[in-house]
Amino acid sequence: MNEVIFRFINSIAGQYGWRDLAIIFFADYFIFIFALGALFLALYHKSERQIIRNLFFIFISGISAWIIVQFVKHFYFSPRPFLALKDAVMLIKHGANDSFPSGHTAFSFAIAMAVYFWKRKYALVFFTGAAFVGIARVAAAIHWPYDILAGAILGIIVTSCAHLFLKGELFSKNLKSV
Asked: CA-CA distance, 37 to 22, in Å (whole number)?
């Protein structure tokens, strides 16, 4: 099933130059715009305390997800699709045996989930952006679909745990201005 879905998504690569550029953009560069968008959204508050809270939450969520992914990759070796399938259309050069889970996807979904917790009306935009990152990484032959699914789940769980852990004083409803 993983290979069937991979082949379907990867089949859009290598067809048109503009589409390949879009795939590369979303797979490698969009994550920076995505993170900056979340940071700017975090700054859109009246209270300095809320701004600090949101920036801290974004930082903790994204970095924690990224660190956990690196830890998993250190102990679980998974070849990338372009190594396992000789006919995969590779658009981006990448390392060999660190496919599972996707760090970019985990980071993106962690940020999207953080936005969900404090600015729900923008959450759909961020989850859509995170999905584009994951799909583009499959289309570029960097990840398998299961890598993306695992990264998304990991990012959501890490941020949800961070929210529960930090919920006390940091996330109280009765925030007082500093």
From this structure: 19
Mean pLDDT across the chain, nearest whole number?
88
Q: Is 49 exposed, middle or buried (0-12, 13-18, 19+ CB in 10 A)?
A: middle
108-143 confidence digits (pLDDT tens): 999 999 999 988 899 999 999 999 999 999 999 999
What's the CA gap between 164 and 1, in Å, rounded? Answer: 35
- The pTM assigned to this predicted structure is 0.88
64 and 158 Cβ atoms separated by less than 8 Å:
yes
The distance from CA 122 to its chain's CA centroid, rounded to whole angstroms, is 16
Strand partners, 98: 78
Query: Cis omega before residue 145 (within 30°)?
Result: no
Instruction: Convert 157-172 to b/e letters by CB count within 10 Å (16 or more is b).
Output: bbbbebbeebeeeebe
Maximum pairwise Cα distance, the chain: 59
